[in-house]
């Protein structure tokens, strides 16, 4: 699934290459969901992962956020080869909010 996301990202117009960026690194890409940049609510870093979480053959985006260890899942409302992420749902374990140890 990561290969699919990388292939899709490669089709986007390349932003200006930041000064000092190593030649083997791709320029950063802004990922949007529901037409807006991803927002993880708090200061800190996010930990994104791509996978077929819904079993529909399309990569969805899982973003773990530093604050509170909460996980957001952004459903792919596009296609397998041209992902487009919709609004997030909180990851749940049974009926409870699923969290991981932050840090």
Automatic annotation (TrEMBL):
<dbReference type="InterPro" id="IPR028994">
    <property type="entry name" value="Integrin_alpha_N"/>
</dbReference>
<protein>
    <recommendedName>
        <fullName>VCBS repeat-containing protein</fullName>
    </recommendedName>
</protein>
């Amino acid at each position: 699934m990561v290969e699919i996301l990388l292939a899709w990202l490669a089709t986007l117009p390349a932003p200006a290459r930041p000064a000092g960026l190593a030649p083997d690194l791709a320029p950063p890409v802004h990922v949007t969901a529901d037409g807006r940049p991803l927002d993880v609510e708090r200061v800190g870093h996010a930990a994104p992962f791509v996978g077929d979480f819904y079993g529909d053959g399309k990569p969805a985006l899982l973003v773990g956020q530093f604050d509170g260890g909460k996980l957001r899942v952004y459903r792919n409302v596009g296609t397998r080869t041209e992902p487009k992420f919709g609004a997030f749902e909180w990851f749940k374990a049974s009926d409870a909010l699923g969290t991981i140890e932050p840090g």
